[in-house]
Amino acid sequence: MGRLEGKVALITGAGSGIGRASALRFAREGAAVAAVDIDRDAAAATIAEIEREGGQAVAIRADVSTAADNEAMVARTEEAFGRLDVLFLNAGIMHPDDSDAVGTDESIWDLTMDVNAKGVFLGCKYGIPALRRAGGGSIINTASFVAVMGAATPQIAYTASKGAVLALTRELAIVHAKENIRVNALCPGPLHTELLMKFLDTPEKKQRRLVHLPMGRFGEADEMAQAAVFLASDESSYVTGTEFMVDGGLSAAYVTAE
Ligand code: NAD
Q1: Does 256 reside within a domain?
Q2: Is 117 within the bounds of a domain?
Q3: How many domains does one find in the chain?
Q4: Residue 1 lies in a domain
Q5: Does 238 participate in catalysis according to the annotation?
Q6: To test the ligand 1 pocket, which listed residue (74, 193, 250) has its Cβ within 8 A of the most ligand atoms?
Q7: CA–CA distances in Å: residue 217 to residues 19, 148, 192, 222, 255
Q8: Does residue 258 carry a pLDDT above 80?
Q9: Domain that holds residue 141
Q10: CATH number at residue 26
């Protein structure tokens, strides 16, 4: 029996990277998956793969920075599968023009906060009533190691947005603890995905990150998906309010071994 048998999971950013890998894993573990993405084709490709493997899924196009789309994605999920048990608020952006405080345009700050931070708030605003209707559930918010560590490669808006995700997660966990709703932040280290590789677009930039990684390699999206399965499942029934670091030891390191 799958570890998520009988559960219904909504995953944002399910068209690529962590969200896509998680959608596939969740479905293999028995969950019915609502694969949400702003890119309709990408979400459709994810559910096509789930269906090929015999799993159950629907693709939903939504921009997580808007209230109307958040409300609609939750309604559509309940309509398709009758309930919602797991809310994996994972969609996020890292803008190429995000830099230091002096060099970052106000519009980049607003866009990044709208998707990464407001997206989590709105996902909870419309998702929590559905979790309540199901008698409880698990919320997983994707933050990042940059929420807890400073870096000399600046991305001021992204960093601030992920700090907001951690603070939101903590408060949500406490406020909803007695309702059987658990809320945890998944904090990935630097990953071998589109999002980061587009940003670290030269061998020098990649190397500058790799020297800080005790394991000497970037993480894989599927390694985040495996952590997300744990947080989504009843195996983590006493885990709430955590900053779940899945970072290859990055945040524990002062100097790494050769
Ligand atoms: P990705 O770019 O591969 O996937 C992100 C997905 O989100 C894309 O399919 C994109 O279309 C979708 N998306 C973007 N804006 C959206 C919006 N407004 N509404 C709905 N969907 C939207 O990225 P990823 O590496 O899988 O990142 C997933 C999450 O993990 C993000 O929150 C990111 O900040 C976080 N993260 C990534 C890394 C890394 O190194 N890749 C590290 C730490 C944290």
Answers
A1: no
A2: yes
A3: 1
A4: no
A5: no
A6: 193
A7: 21, 20, 9, 14, 15
A8: no
A9: 8-245
A10: 3.40.50.720
Q: Which of 6-15, 100-109, 150-159, 183-192 is least confident?
A: 150-159
- The model carries a pTM of 0.98
195 Cα to the center of ligand 1, angstroms: 7
Contact 45, 15 (CB under 8 A): yes
Per-residue model confidence (pLDDT) at position 178 = 98
Cα 80 to Cα 155, 197, 252: the distances in Å are 38, 35, 43
Half-sphere exposure of 38 (CA within 13 A, CB side): 10
- CA geometry: angle 240, 245, 246, nearest 5 deg: 120
**pLDDT per position as a tens digit, 121-172:** 999 999 999 999 999 999 999 999 999 999 888 999 999 999 999 999 999 9
Cα 178 to middle of ligand 1, angstroms: 31
To test ligand 1's pocket by mutation, which of 16, 111, 113 has the most ligand atoms within 8 angstroms of CB? 16
Residue 253 lies in a domain: no
CB atoms within 10 A of CB 204: 8
pLDDT tens digits, 185-203: 999 999 998 878 887 889 9
